[in-house]
Amino acid sequence: MPYPDKILRTVQKPARYTGGEWQSFVKNWGQTGIRVAVSYPDTYEVGMSNITIPILYQVVNELDWALAERVFAPWPDMERALRQAGVKLQSLESGHELREFDLVGFSLGYELTFTNVLNILDLGGIAPKSIDRGESEPLVMAGGIGALNPEPLSDFVDFFVIGDGEEALPRVLKAIHEGKKTKTPRRRILEALAGLEGVYVPSLYDVEYAGDGVFKHIVPSGSGARLPVKRLFCRQLPPPPTMPVVPLIETIQDRAAVEISRGCTRGCRFCNAGFYYRPLRHRRPDDIADTVSSLCANCGYDEVTLLSLSAGDYPGITGLIRRLGRDDLFKDITFSLPSLRVDAGSLDLVESLNEKRKSGLTLAPEAATERLQRVINKIIPEEEILRTAAAAFERGWVNLKLYFMLGLPTETDKDLEAIALLTHKVYDLGRLCPGRRPRLRLSLSTFVPKPHTPFQWVSQIPGNEIMRRVNVVRNLIDRRGISLSWQKPETSLLEAVFSRGDRRLGRAIYRAWELGARFDGWDELFEFELWRQAFNETGIDPAFYANREREITESLPWSHIDNGISAEFLQEEYRRALRGIVTPDCRVDDCNLCGLQMQINNCHNLSKTADESG
Questions:
Q1: Could you tell me if 198 and 280 lie in one domain?
Q2: What is the DSSP string of 382-445?
Q3: Mean pLDDT, range 29-35, rounded to an integer
Q4: How many Å apart are CA 512 and CA 516, to the nearest integer?
Q5: Same structural domain, 45 and 135
Q6: In a domain, 502, yes or no
Q7: How far apart are CA 397 and CA 72, in angstroms?
Q8: 307, 330, 337, 354: most buried by Cβ count inside 10 Å?
Q9: Cα 168 from chain centre
């Protein structure tokens, strides 16, 4: 049933909760064998901008015997209204309470949404802790890049899907459907799921710790449990959604999105997405053009984003752009490429795709010195940055954003001073161009060590040191046309804690949620004091997880998850980083023996398109 008007009249944006959008699926509830609620644990505007949600929505609803409906995290005003009225959180499509579904699945893209997971479950009438759920309550699933270290959420999630959802979800749903038809007990269904490749059921494993509190190992303790748990990936990307739900209100990314490739081979050592989404796979130009055409016809969009971790690496990208540009079907469509590297060729691509406006351009060198760039394996010479910036100013761009990371391994004050110096050089180039004064935004993001990367052993710098380094840069920025922003140290600390944590963190997450922690990734709602209290009450030292450098031989809480990249490769990459040795891109150089080549015949074959001519 829809939410009562007396509730919707009291909230800021009622359309977040009403459903009824164009192209939403409303299947026959009573005649469908298994019912799934899919969720991105953030607001409607954020969740509807996440490309995973329409993929999962399509995968499930294409099955005759299953349905998928959506639910997102209610804003605090809606939470208050629901709790005061005693009304449960419900799906957008049919208005069924979450506790009526067979499965609730979360796409985890960011660690600071973890308390929202608990809140969605509780508001939906589902016990947040898996151990407290009865036979009649839904199973709770999670996946996505945030599941690469599933341990912090292991108290709350019944099972995790590791890898591409398109590959794993139909098998998972079939097992649950069979269990439901035969009235199989919950525990037995979970054991059957644990036997599927790419599925991890935390309750079927025991964890041991050493006397000093360091993680020791994890061992199977239930039927079906296996080690390691291998990530599933699609060898060939399936057709993308062409009839996604069209939001009722403006979203964060209010445009169509087409994933042109998945994966990256550049090997930036800080980037978990670059390692998680390997191997590199591309869609054919014909398929991309057909998808764009269908999306625009079905949804009415006049803006399309071509998504990739590094769009310039798509084979024949110039030919693809020329093809889209000369097709009469797309003459009124504005295209964008949000993930281009810093070079003049990329600027040419941006201009050819988006001639209608020049709102802003982002350059992300990450590090300002060649020495530190060699450490992180992302080489962008200063002269290339300056050449690109100069060309951007000359072609009419006024707003530029420079993105750097603080606290990278081996960083010194000289590296920080180089950030300010390079920023001034870019600004001076803008002042040389006629017309309006340049507006330059300098963004400093704190490095967070991520699991399954070569920097997973590295410590994060503590909060006071973060601010000291911010001030080193800030004190050297002396131009009015340059604005400086940085991430709150407390936010970076939490992200590092959950990135490298173990399942003992569950009690702190639960206590923080009880105290009122919600939307921790939103500056206006983030209250670190709640987390400080939760850590103190549960006896957890966040510095133990975030600020402690790990020995390269130390067992890691996520080591039972096999991402396809070998531990030996990551260790060698870590050593090469400390020596400042660059590892070349295996897309254009020899195989780096990362481990994937042991699981598939040839990584390079997967990254080729059938037609690279465009």
A1: no
A2: HHHHHHHHHHHHHTT--EEEEEEEES-TT--HHHHHHHHHHHHHHHHHHHHSSSSPPEEEEEEE
A3: 95
A4: 6
A5: yes
A6: no
A7: 37
A8: 337
A9: 18
**Identity of residue 415:** D
Task: Report how far residue 563's alpha carbon sits from residue 568's, in angstroms, rounded to the nearest whole number.
Answer: 13
Note whether 73 and 50 are within 8 A (CB): no
**Cα–Cα distance, 247 to 48 (Å, whole number):** 7
Q: Which residues 6+ apart lie within 8 Å of 459 measured at CB? A: 449, 546, 547, 548, 549, 550
Give φ, ψ of 412 to 5 degrees.
-125, 175
Do 80 and 219 fall into the same domain? yes
Structure tokens at 516: 């009122």
Q: To which residue do tokens 């947040």 refer?
A: 128
Write the pLDDT tens digit of every residue in 162-203: 999 998 999 999 999 999 999 999 999 999 999 999 999 999
Name the more confident of 343 and 417. 417
**Residue 158 is assigned to a structural domain of this protein:** yes
Residue 365 host element (H or E): strand 361-366
- Residue pair 527/516 in contact (Cβ under 8 Å)? The answer is yes
Residue type, 347: L
Helix (H, G, I), strand (E, B) or coil at 298: helix
Mapping DSSP to helix (H, G, I), strand (E, B) and coil, where does residue 2 land? coil
Q: What are phi and psi of 121, to 5 degrees?
A: -60, -50
Q: What is the pLDDT of residue 417?
A: 97
Give the torsion through C-alpha atoms of 125, 126, 129, 131, to 10 deg: 120
Q: Rounded distance, CA 228 to CA 215, Å?
A: 17
User: Collapsing DSSP states into helix, strand and coil, what is residue 361?
Assistant: strand
Output the CA–CA distances (angstroms, integers) from residue 132 to 126, 276, 324, 518, in the order listed.
9, 32, 54, 22
**How many Cβ atoms sit within 10 Å of the Cβ of residue 279?**
23
Does residue 369 lie in a domain region?
A: no
User: Do residues 80 and 126 both lie within one domain?
Assistant: yes
Write the CATH number for 296. Answer: 3.30.750.210
Q: Look-up: residue for tokens 């997450």?
A: 509
In whole angstroms, how large is the CA radius of gyration of the chain?
24
CA pair distance 513, 129, nearest whole angstrom: 12
In a domain, 147, yes or no: yes
pLDDT in tens, 281-331: 999 999 999 999 999 999 988 889 899 998 888 888 888 888 887 777 787
Percent of the chain with pLDDT over 70: 95
Q: Which residue has the tokens 């507006």?
A: 439
- The set of residues, in sequence order, having a beta carbon less than 8 Å from that of 478 and lying 6+ positions away, is none
Handedness of CA 497, 498, 504, 510 (dihedral sign): positive
- CATH number of the domain at 56, please: 3.40.50.280
Query: Which residue range is the domain that position 41 belongs to?
Result: 5-230
